[in-house]
Amino acid sequence: MEITLTIENKAGLHARPAALFAQKASSFKSTIMIGKGEKNANAKSIISIMGLGIKHGESIVLKVDGPDTDEAVKTLQQLVADKFGEE
Amino acid sequence: MWKFEGIAASSGIAIGPVMHIQEATNDFSRKVAPEEAPREKERFVKAQNLAVVQLDVLQKHMATTVGEQEAEVFAAHKLMVEDPSLVEAVFADIETNYASAEAAVEVATEEIANMFAAIDDEYMRERAADVKDIGKRLLRILQGQTDEVKYEGILVATDLLPSDTASIDFASVSGFITALGGKTSHSSILARAAGLSAVVGVGNVIEKLVDGDMVIVDGHNGQVLVNPEESIIEQYRQQMEKERARAVKLAQVGHLPSITVDGHHIEIASNIGTPADMEKVVAAGADGVGLFRTEFLFLDKTTVPTEEEQVESYRAVLNAMPDKKIVIRTLDAGGDKQLPFIGGLPEANPALGLRAIRLCMVYKDVFKTQLRALLRAGVDGKLHIMFPMIATLDELLAAKALLKEVADELAQEGIAHRADVPVGIMIEVPSAAVIADVLATEVDFFSIGTNDLVQYTMAADRMNEHVAWLSDYFQPPVIRLIANVAKAAKEHGKWVGMCGEMAGDSLATPLLVGLGLTELSMNGRSVPVVKHLVRQLDIKQAQEWANQVLTLRTTAEIKKKLEEIATTFEI
Asked: Against a cut of 0.90, is the pTM above it?
């Protein structure tokens, strides 16, 4: 499954939000990738996520494939919608 | 004896023997036999596990000794050590190239650090240092070194990374010398926080230092003296003694009344950013708060803070010093401090754009909520309300009318509040300084914000180093504007204070008091220094000096005069 999300929290996907994202993604069995423009990253890796340098207002494409796809998409979508709990 | 220089990163003098920080070496074999690859992978996993344990301990140690926030860096390091991308890269290198675990870690962390460093974002570039630090930690473990070295004396290192500094017992270390780094690098910040002297960015001269060399680290001038003669050590010892005596003296002065020799009270207040700062204000011996910036309530929020939230914050500050004057500045947002819930269009000249009072008068409901909260909190303590960036009389009248409207509403609703809170304005736009006589008829006080006043008067961006010589509060036009404001306030029987950086500069104190300012608001550290000076001042003499300074034509002349004046005081 593929969905597009916009990163709304002020700091973008910096250390803390990237860590939260990677932690949540790691709790699923499915393969989860984040794409920004041409680049793709393993969503279970804080280093790969941070390497994309995703800033406030930018869109990312989330690709999830595996046994718990629906749940993973729902959870990660929620995390982004909640702005990583920054508010 | 020989000496070298670097960047003075943390003031003070330290004398002691040199000790080099244990560095991981790259003295390891880079390749292994193919059949040993599985063993290398195992070594890496073991090192990884040990690193996580070490980081865990460090995080807890740092949280209790320095602070939760400083400890956060180790939580991030833990995640990076265990990161699948790192593991993947290391394993791949071992499997396909038969790299040793050491070589694989070095290559992988360097690649990741380079990737971070290439991102066009200051924050991400700093994370590159974190990744390098991870690599260093793993290498040390793989080479059988531990964190448990007992460091003493003067530490010498290429750079002090978080992993180094966290394991150092600051009670037995008195100074740092590093080859790399600047004033804002991790080691410098830590040195200042821990009260150690430090000289950084000295370059590869550190290679000439041998463990046990006696050095003097002069953190004031950024100098390091190596193996000095006994007479020089004695000289520095005496200076250390003097500094210690001065610190003790200043700590005492902090709590004495701030009165000139001829009996005039000059309020020495503090600037704060959050209610939590009040503890330091009280400890420093300040006479109150001359500037409470309320932005913290609004920035980093996606919604407007509620009236109740605001009342609580304002009350916390007022109740911390119930008998002292507390000046709360209304929201100074916009420009470089954008509010997420207001949005707004990007401006070509944010410093000259829709900000502070201008922004508040557009988003009236946000402003009214703050004013309501202020009047409600004003029931306690000695609240003063201050509007930022007033440029015209109309703006001041409109803001005051809104305040009146809010007071009427609160009265109608039967909510407890104080309607007659003293109202003042920041003088930070030159136009306001010019028409201070007009504005004085409509306010209870002025507070001069020198940072913006200098920027706007000199038309020089204070963040732009290429025009830094203009950004000086000792520029004659700035001094004249301050004099004009003080004169207007005096003629109308209003008090005038200052809450910009200049207020905390003891070189300026005789001039400011001489011009007629009766309140100076500064950061906590400057409070005892400025107070000590005020207690030696005579108003008549200060006025004479101020008049002389007003006749001077250049910044250099003004500074020279003030430096002469300073020599007549015990500082």
From this structure: no
